[in-house]
């Protein structure tokens, strides 16, 4: 997935002090994705008050009734992994590594950009499509390594009374996904029956977040902070203050938590759990590029903007089936891009 904003914000991010065990809630902003019939997505990461949760640096929730399709032409990525997890419908993925596959519910689509890769994503016209796509920042070394792709269809689960989580990447409560990762983390999709109470152990040295994908959950604790994006359509509501988290909200749980407990609402709930060891390297993020510095981003953008008349791109390759069609990159702002850092970053 790509950020199609023609004027993307810098996303330098603030060094938020939400590092303790308090519960912080982020309201999503709606972003159009693709073409004339743009499919709206709910974006919660990156946020001006919270840049990272572990290595997770980008989170889109897509919910389409079929009237608007995912139609994303070839676009580039650097220094990240795209984690695509459809819940209903399927996505046709093609990339410059030669992969041409359909990813379906229950299957993980994982692409590692390394120094550079390009891909396209299309859903079936008229088909309901829901799911999430996330990005993971790659640490030094893998960030300039070779690109790679894997699709995983057999994934472990963690279950309790009235609930079950599929661990699509990383590790949760002893269940480990076979997906390739480059830092300690977890990504899991959980379903809970109406009124079910979910309790599971967490690594207290990690930070975590829960996206309420559908339904609602009760967190059984007071919300310490609530970040409502200025562009959001509504203000803080009483439900959030009561610890009831509704669909689209991303809840951040800081370090020091040894377990997670919540109760599903009267209609049940579906949640996406993410987390990981704090990512302590600087991250510069602009459009679809990640780097360690402004110069990394400038080099990546210049490589994507090269002359395409030769039938491909030297750094990012060519996605089969699209000839030289691609999404042009936006111009860099007339200032040097600043790195954004985890609140747990240390220069030592």
Question: How would you describe this structure to a colleague?
Answer:
The chain has 348 residues and is mainly beta. The chain is 4% helix and 44% strand. The protein has helices at 238-241, 294-304, and strands spanning 23-26, 29-33, 39-45, 56-64, 71-77, 80-88, 91-95, 100-103, 108-112, 117-123, 129-137, 148-152, 157-160, 163-172, 175-176, 185-192, 197-201, 207-218, 223-227, 244-246, 250-253, 259-276, 284-286, 289-291. The strands form 4 sheets. Strands 1, 13, 14, 15, 16, 17, 18, 19, 20, 21 and 22 form an 11-stranded mixed β-sheet that branches. A 7-stranded antiparallel β-sheet has the order 2-3-4-11-6-9-12, with no helix packed on it. It has a 4-stranded antiparallel β-sheet with strand order 5-10-7-8, with no helix packed on it. A hairpin with a 4-residue loop joins strand 7 (91-95) and strand 8 (100-103). The longest helix has 11 residues, at 294-304. The radius of gyration is 19 Å and the shape is globular. The two termini are 35 Å apart. Mean pLDDT is 88; it is low at 10-19 and 232-238.
As a whole number of angstroms, the C-alpha radius of gyration is 19 Å
Q: Sketch the topology as an H/E string, one letter per element.
A: EEEEEEEEEEEEEEEEEEEHEEEEEH
User: How helix-rich are the residues, as a percent range?
Assistant: under 10%
Separation, N- and C-terminal Cα atoms: 35 Å
How is the biggest beta sheet arranged? Answer: 11 strands, mixed
């Amino acid at each position: 997935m790509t950020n199609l904003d023609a004027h993307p914000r810098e996303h330098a991010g603030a060094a938020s002090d939400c590092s303790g065990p308090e519960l912080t809630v982020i309201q999503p902003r709606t972003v159009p994705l693709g073409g004339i019939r743009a499919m709206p997505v709910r974006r919660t990461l990156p946020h001006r008050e919270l840049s990272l949760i572990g290595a997770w640096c980008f989170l889109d929730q897509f919910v389409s009734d079929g009237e608007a399709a995912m139609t994303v032409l070839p676009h580039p990525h650097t220094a990240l992994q795209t984690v695509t997890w459809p819940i209903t419908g399927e996505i046709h993925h093609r990339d410059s590594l030669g992969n041409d596959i359909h990813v379906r519910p229950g299957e993980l689509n994982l692409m590692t950009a390394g120094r550079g890769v390009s891909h396209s994503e299309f859903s079936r016209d008229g088909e309901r499509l829901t799911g999430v796509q996330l990005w993971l920042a790659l640490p030094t070394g893998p960030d300039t390594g070779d690109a790679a792709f894997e699709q995983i269809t057999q994934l472990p689960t963690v279950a309790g009374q009235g609930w079950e989580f599929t661990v699509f990447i990383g590790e949760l409560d002893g269940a480990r996904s076979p997906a390739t990762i480059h830092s300690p983390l977890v990504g899991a999709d959980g379903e809970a029956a109406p009124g079910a109470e979910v309790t599971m152990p967490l690594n207290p040295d990690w930070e975590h977040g829960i996206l309420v994908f559908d339904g609602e959950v009760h967190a059984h604790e007071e919300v310490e902070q609530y970040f409502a994006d200025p562009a959001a359509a509504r203000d803080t509501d009483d439900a959030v203050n009561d610890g009831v988290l509704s669909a689209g909200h991303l809840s951040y749980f800081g370090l020091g938590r040894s377990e997670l407990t919540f109760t599903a609402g009267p209609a049940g709930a579906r949640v996406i759990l993410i987390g990981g060891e704090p990512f302590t390297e600087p991250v510069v993020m602009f459009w679809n590029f990640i780097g360690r510095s402004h110069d990394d981003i400038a080099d990546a953008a210049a490589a994507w903007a090269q002359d395409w008349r030769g039938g491909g791109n030297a750094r990012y390759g060519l996605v089969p089936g699209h000839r030289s069609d691609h999404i042009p990159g936006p111009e860099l702002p007339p200032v040097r891009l600043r790195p954004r850092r985890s609140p747990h970053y240390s220069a030592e």
